[in-house]
Amino acid sequence: MPGWYPDPAGSPELRWWDGAQWLNRTQPAGTGTAPGAPGAGPGQPEPPGYTSPFAAPAPGTVPYVPAHAAGAPVPWAWAVAAIPLLHLAVAVVIAALGGMSGSTAGYVLLGAVAAGLVAVFLAYRDARALKAAGNLPGTGIAWWALLAPWAYLWARAVRRYGRTNLDWILLAASAALWFLVLVISGPVVSSVATAATTFNQAKVQAEIARGIQNQLGVHTVVRCPKDPPVHPGATFQCLARASDGSRALVTVTIQDRSGDYTWHTN
């Protein structure tokens, strides 16, 4: 039935329904016209060729018509769900640049901060798109993305109008991905940091040779492996050769992530 009804776009005004489509005419809700009352029309008809942005599919009814199909998440929601992958990628890049100079926990935390900021931005875009379509009452839930991507998607699924099982599937997929990244991020980042650490072969050889000469008074030439393990607790052996031709093995033990080491002759 033609009349003034609450604006399906979510504004506090009333919008005129002409029995077939929403017209681009509004009036304040407190003007004395009850919502749904036939009352007087909005004035002059729309010009020929005008297409209302509030067109409805069924004449004679007042349906709720979202811009996005119910249950079909917009691309921003899928981007939010994939944020754990960004978290891992950022942590790995920072670990590759920092090597053993930083801690694994620090690299993972930096990745989480960067990914969290991006998640809030993407969540806000998603919430704004849903609000514009009339599928969400507000954009404040975007801050839930700071807790975790799945936290926002949970709040989104709970508060979204016309939700379907696809919204819950998206939430479950995001939670599973988040948990997987949480489990593997530590080992992966630690491995990358270790691999990115460069062993200064010449420096270690010179320091050991100098140490042997100070302790024993013997000039030696020391040769160490080019790419030995450098993680804390790792050991490797170098060969020390004296000027008289005698040889001795030197065992090197890595002490910490900064590359400090101890050595002793066998």
Topology (SSEs and partners):
Layout: E1 3-6, E2 14-17, E3 21-27, E4 54-55, H1 75-81, H2 83-98, H3 104-132, H4 149-159, H5 165-196, H6 201-216, E5 220-223, E6 235-242, E7 247-254, E8 261-265
Antiparallel strand pairs: 1-2, 2-3, 3-4, 5-6, 6-7, 7-8
Helix pairs in contact: 1-3, 1-5, 2-3, 2-5, 3-5, 4-5
Summed up:
With 266 residues, this protein is an alpha+beta fold.
Structure description:
By secondary structure, the chain is an alpha+beta fold. It has three domains: 1-65, no CATH class; 75-196, no CATH class; 201-265. Helix content is 42%, strand content 16%. It has helices at 75-81, 83-98, 104-132, 149-159, 165-196, 201-216; strands at 3-6, 14-17, 21-27, 54-55, 220-223, 235-242, 247-254, 261-265. A four-stranded antiparallel beta sheet has the order 1-2-3-4, with no helix packed on it.
List keywords for this structure.
four-stranded antiparallel β-sheet, 3 domains, alpha+beta, 6 helices, 8 strands, 266 residues
Strand order of the largest sheet: 1-2-3-4
Q: Cα distance, first to last residue?
A: 98 Å
Quickly count the helices: 6
What series of H and E elements makes up the topology?
A: EEEEHHHHHHEEEE
Which class of secondary structure composition applies to the elements?
A: alpha+beta
| Oligomeric state of the chains in view | single chain
Low-confidence stretches: 44-72
